[in-house]
Amino acid sequence: MRKILNYKNREKDLLFNDKRNIVRYKSTTIGKQNMENKDIISAKHTIDKEVEALRMMEDSLDGSLTEALNLMQKTEGRVIVTGMGKSGHVGSKIAATLASTGTPSFFVHPGEASHGDLGMITSKDCVLAISNSGETRELSDIIIYCKRFGIPLIAVTKNPDSALGKAGDILLTLPNDGEACPLGLAPTSSTTATIVLGDILAIALLERRGFTKTDFKQRHPGGKLGAYLQKVSDLMHTGDDMPLVKEDATMQNVILTMSAKLLGCVGVISPDGKLIGIITDGDLRRNMSNDIMNKTAADIMTKNPKITDGDTLVAEALKIMNTTGKGITQLFVTENGFPVGIIHMHDCLKTGAA
Q: Is the pTM above the cut of 0.90?
């Protein structure tokens, strides 16, 4: 009897513990959901507040923007960007974007400027100074230096009546509608607006200068972007490395040439040297028969092969190869119908452009 009672008591304890665990699980789940909801509400508020700041800036754009662009475009030296704290971090990004899109630019830290780096700024430069409040004490030496030596100053601030706002030869006003930070302290909406303003300046100058993909590549030779912007002419095989045979070439000549050049194909040229066809190793397999050695290159070639030119980007050449029927692995490069090079898919893939 005692054993039975102990068993029933243990059963009650287990049941009680299970109920308590279920309640704890439900409480934890509900708490987690509440936290997720609060996080999403906070995120949406931040987005809304920062979008609102951008809309305000959009509505306030005026002739000052054109004046600033005119000044930056005609500057013989460099656009010197400066700012302190978060404005400085944003300023570094703006300077880098300008430099990479055709407007020579670099960042000067206000603190270092007061200890010798003012010598980096010349009379041929212009200065883009950023301060949300316009009262950043560390900018004073740069402002005085600009005034003393007649260096044009573009002021970026939300306060036109601030020391920076009044000192600027041109004023670009930031939206003055508070920060996304609930404390109203951490630079959030203001830094977003400043970054976008920097992009506005960089893109407008890029368009004014007629900046091209080629120009962009020259400033981005490394990494994925550099690979993507390489041209076919940078990689193509030329001269004696091209596998070429005449249209009346024997199949023995075709096979020997294909084997020697190691590109998996031969180009077929007319008597005047223009490319009229291509034979790939796949073509050889498809035409394999007892009398194949009695045929000429013209008998089995694919006429009017896909071609490209030297200025085509490697990424675009890859796209041509991948979207042509069942896909091809080689492209001849021609000028006025004459073959000047050949590029293989493996050449493209090695660059990392895929």
A: no
